[in-house]
Structure formats: C-alpha cells, structure tokens
TrEMBL record:
<dbReference type="GO" id="GO:0016811">
    <property type="term" value="F:hydrolase activity, acting on carbon-nitrogen (but not peptide) bonds, in linear amides"/>
</dbReference>
<dbReference type="InterPro" id="IPR013108">
    <property type="entry name" value="Amidohydro_3"/>
</dbReference>
<dbReference type="GO" id="GO:0016812">
    <property type="term" value="F:hydrolase activity, acting on carbon-nitrogen (but not peptide) bonds, in cyclic amides"/>
</dbReference>
<dbReference type="GO" id="GO:0005829">
    <property type="term" value="C:cytosol"/>
</dbReference>
<dbReference type="InterPro" id="IPR050378">
    <property type="entry name" value="Metallo-dep_Hydrolases_sf"/>
</dbReference>
<dbReference type="InterPro" id="IPR032466">
    <property type="entry name" value="Metal_Hydrolase"/>
</dbReference>
<dbReference type="InterPro" id="IPR023100">
    <property type="entry name" value="D-aminoacylase_insert_dom_sf"/>
</dbReference>
<dbReference type="InterPro" id="IPR011059">
    <property type="entry name" value="Metal-dep_hydrolase_composite"/>
</dbReference>
<feature type="domain" description="Amidohydrolase 3">
    <location>
        <begin position="51"/>
        <end position="519"/>
    </location>
</feature>
<protein>
    <submittedName>
        <fullName>N-acyl-D-amino-acid deacylase</fullName>
    </submittedName>
</protein>
<dbReference type="Pfam" id="PF07969">
    <property type="entry name" value="Amidohydro_3"/>
</dbReference>
C-alpha cells in the first residue's frame, strides 16, 4: 500500500456503529480495510504508515453550501476549510456567481457580490462559461489545482442577469429560451445543479413558472435545485411550500439551502417546517436540506433593501440612495412595512452587526450593530446604514442575529439534513461558521449536547451530501472509494473560531487526506493541492 492507517476507529459515514480497523490506501483510493479481529493474513503493509492511536477515521466532510468561488483561486492554503476536514465544497450558491457570463454580466456580478468574495481585482477572469470556470479551478496555482475539491451550481440570478439584465418583469419567451439554453450548457459542462437567491436581485424577479421551466432543464440533466427561497421570516412556511410544489411540478430534486426558521415570528416553528417536508417526502418528493450550527445569519447590508430599490443593478441602487426622497421611501419599507430583502420583517437595527467592509477606512464600523454606530454618532440608524452603503460602495457584510437555538437543533436532527457552512470568508470579522461549522457539529452538538451520536453526525456530513451530489465513490469509508479522509479526536474536536476571533482554526483534527494525499498533517497545512472540480456524473 502507499499508506496504511493503523488502529483507527472507523466511523464509516453510513451512520452505523464504529469499528477498529487498519485502512490501506493505494493510488488515491481505499484499497483494503482490515477490521480488528478479522482472520485476514498477512496484515496490511505500506510504504508509509500512520498510527491513528484510536483517532476516528471518517470520510472527508462535504460542505453543501460554500462561498469559496474566488477564495479557491486566490488562496492555495485555504485552511479555513481544509483544517475543518472539508474535502469537497459546493459553490455557485444563492443564485449569484461568476459563470456563465459575458463581459457586462461579469462586471455587474463582481460588484453585486463584492461582500461575499471581494471585488475580484486580484483574479484573472479568463473564463466566461461554466466549463471554463471549472477548468480554471483545475489549472489554478500554476497548474497544481486547488486546496479542496469543488462542485458548482449554476447561479440562476446570474443567468437572468445575462439573459435580460436587472429588470423586474416576466421573461419573454425568447429570454426564457436563452436562460434554458444557458442552464443546459452549464449542466453539460459539469455543474451539479442550479441555485437561486430569491431574496437577492435580479434572481428574485423570476416567477414560479420561469423557475419551473429552468428546473425542468436541471432535472433532465440529473441535477438538483438549491434555492435560497423567498423568505426565512414572515411567510417562511409558504416560501418553503412554494419550492416544494415548484420542484414537484418540474420533477426536479430539491435541496433547501440553509434551511432555517428565523426572526421572532418563527420562534419554535421548526416542527411546522419538518411536518411540511415529511408530508412531501411521504408523497415521493426528493428533498434534502443543509444548515449551519449557529443562530446568526450572514449576508450583505445591501441585501436588506426592498427589491424595487435594487432594480437596474448596483448603479441604480446608488442613485436611489443618493436621492433623499427615494431614500426615505426605502427607509419606510425597511423599518415600517418590512422589505422583502429582510424577509418581510421590519428591520431591527440592533440585530444587524457589521462584519466586514470593502473600504478599510470604514473599519471602525466592524463589530458594532448599526444601532450602536448610530447612537455613537447621535443619529437615526437608517442615516448610518445609508451612509455606510454609499461610502462602502455596497460592499459591507453583516451578521443578522435573528435565529433560534431550538429551531437549529430540531432541523439538524432530520433524516434528510446535511451540513453547510454558508461561510463568507471576506471581511474583518466574518461569521465563525466559515472556519468552524464541521468541528462545531462534532464537538458542541454531538459530544457536548448529544443532539446526535457522532456516527449519525458524520453521516449528515458525508454520505448524505454525497448521495445528493450523486457521487458514486465518495462519502463512505469503503474499499474502492476515493481516499478523501479525515482523522479527528471525538473527545477534543472543537471549533476554535468565535464571534470575537472568527479566523481561529479548529482543534482535534490533525490529519486530512484528499485522494490519499495529506492536505493536513499533524495539525498543519501541507503544500499539497489535491483538489479538483467535481463534475456532474452523466
């Protein structure tokens, strides 16, 4: 064998009981598993040996909701994910990413999601197609590849932007045909499905009939639909039901992104969501979901605006904010009516904490709520928020403290649940989920709170997402499968990241392998770049 991992507690990803074994790796795959007590001779031998000393050996974790679209190209180290044991990320989330595009669309989307990924001024955008972007991942960093594997979802908002701009109107038949062709091309080039951000413009302007037609294309290519749906606040249950009905009509598998029930109106209502999903599953619907193990959410400040204020794109947003009468109308919608950008709930400025800014000169805002910054200046919160939006060129990111712990725990127990970090890596003070989601599941929720056993928790993070992605050789410790593996200590594994120190790496995860190569060894990042694009299985 190239490598033998000895005396490991194998947690194989199926949810079954763990067992002791030696695991042999050859040519990037699991070549042999010799269980303790098995009558098999001779014992596995290897060119290299790693004494696991009772560490748990699990399949590499799959992050079903990641925002590393540019980080993978920018940072060969990418310890934010590698150190967590993540061996595969699903990017292209929330309906906005960088392929497929033309020159106009690329410039617009770069500005629209600066808060997620930076402005991209350090990236060579040589591609315009989905296939070109996946090729760029494979040839990144001097042709060596990327830190961890990546799968891509076609972003429906970007597709709409490409086909018809930022207009709030139904697509014409010709425009819909163009969007369908773009989705089909992206699927043929390797995307695993399509995402939407239905509280983000311009994707939110699509009606159900338009989305259904696009989902039919996705289904024909054996992909899945991953919506950030229209509300996680007021009307959340109706928004979930809309996505279930839409995808059932299209006969398209559904994966619900960061499936939370937030804001005061939804306290204790996770069982209502799960009842809805259980009924659909009993009727034969193909549904999965992901969550992150924290209560606050994270997005951009500009996303809080009402959708009408965002029609026309970033330049139009700025023009409206600069106009006093229009800005007052925006404030009224946000503070009194409840803007659709804030999920139909009147915004509470004391829950909106600035986590990152594009302009370093605005760093004094980071770590404070809008309400706190406004009080320090002796002005109304909207005045502070409006100034920040304009001065930071719409690039500010926020933490939104609107979640409920009982909802988080109830949803993560569900049988179709998977793990997703929703990790935004930009900003001075990002959400700690970007660096801590997977050890947080294993440490806090499995070991400390006992919400699930460690075996069941690992299944949520490995085999379940692999099944959704239709990956035939990942997600389980099994002979013949890829040697994407993580060794962790169930007694000490924990997220190091906190809201005060969000970029602290986890503890208790000493070794991570991709294709049998150590990307983390003895708790340190190696220089190995074993990650590649993972393209849809035909």
């Amino acid at each position: 064998m190239d490598l033998v991992i000895r005396d490991a507690r194998v947690i194989d990803g199926t949810g079954g009981a763990s067992y002791r074994a030696d695991v042999g790796v050859q040519d990037g795959r699991i070549a042999a598993i010799h269980r303790e007590g098995e009558e098999r001779a001779p014992r596995l031998t290897g060119q290299a040996n790693l004494d696991a000393q009772g560490l748990a050996l699990a399949p590499g974790f799959i992050d079903m909701h990641a925002h590393s679209d540019l980080a993978l190209l920018r940072d060969p180290d990418h310890s934010a994910k590698a150190a967590q044991g993540v061996t595969l990320e699903v990017i292209g989330q929330d309906g906005l990413s960088y392929a497929p595009v033309d020159d106009r669309t690329l410039a617009q989307v770069r500005q629209a999601i600066t808060g997620w990924n930076g402005d991209g001024s350090d990236i060579d955008f040589t591609w315009r197609t989905v296939g070109g972007y996946l090729d760029a991942l494979d040839s990144a960093h001097g042709g060596h590849g990327i830190a961890v594997n990546a799968a891509y979802l076609i972003p429906q908002g970007t597709v709409r932007m490409y086909a018809m701009g930022w207009e709030d109107r139904p697509a014409t038949p010709a425009e819909l045909d163009r969007m369908k062709r773009l989705v089909a091309e992206g699927m043929r080039e390797g995307a695993v499905g399509m995402s939407s951000g239905l509280t983000y413009t311009p994707g939110m302007y699509a009606d159900d009939s338009e989305l259904t037609e696009l989902c039919k294309v996705v289904a024909a290519h054996k992909g899945y639909y991953c919506p950030h749906h229209r509300s996680y606040g007021a009307g959340a249950l109706q928004a979930y039901e809309e996505m279930v009905n839409l995808t059932c009509t299209a006969h398209c598998p559904l994966h619900l992104a960061h499936a939370t029930m937030n804001f005061g109106v939804n306290k204790g209502k996770a069982p209502d969501l799960l009842t809805l999903l259980d009924a659909a599953l009993a009727d034969g619907a193909d549904i999965t979901l992901d969550t992150y193990p924290y209560t606050p959410g994270c997005t951009t400040l500009v996303a809080m605006l009402p959708s009408w204020a965002s029609e026309g794109g970033p330049d139009a947003i700025r023009a409206r904010l600069l106009d006093d009468a229009t800005a007052e109308k925006i404030r009224h919608h946000m503070e009194v009516i409840g803007a659709d950008g804030c999920h139909g709930v009147p915004i509470e400025w004391d829950t909106i904490e600035v986590s990152g800014v594009s302009d370093p000169g605005l760093a004094s805002c980071v770590g404070k709520t809008i309400a706190q910054s406004a009080a320090q200046r002796g002005e109304e919160p909207w005045v502070t928020a409006r100034r920040l939006l304009l001065n930071d060129n719409l690039g500010s990111t926020i933490l939104q403290h609107v979640g409920h712990e009982e909802n988080v725990q109830e949803i993560m127990r569900h049988r179709v649940h998977t793990g997703g970090s929703d990790g935004i890596l930009q900003g001075f003070k990002p959400h700690p989920r970007a660096y801590g989601t997977f050890p947080q599941y294993l440490g806090k929720y499995a070991r400390e709170l006992g919400v699930m056993s460690v075996e069941e928790t690992v299944a949520h993070l490995t085999s379940r997402p692999a099944a959704r992605l239709r990956l035939p050789d990942r997600g389980v410790v099994r002979e013949g499968y890829r040697a994407d593996l993580v060794l962790f200590d169930p007694e000490t594994v924990a997220a190091g990241s906190t809201f005060d120190a969000p970029r602290t790496l986890p503890v208790g995860i000493p070794h991570v392998l991709i294709d049998g190569r150590f990307v983390m060894r003895d708790g340190r990042r190696t220089d190995v770049l074993a990650g590649r694009s993972v393209r849809r299985t035909p």
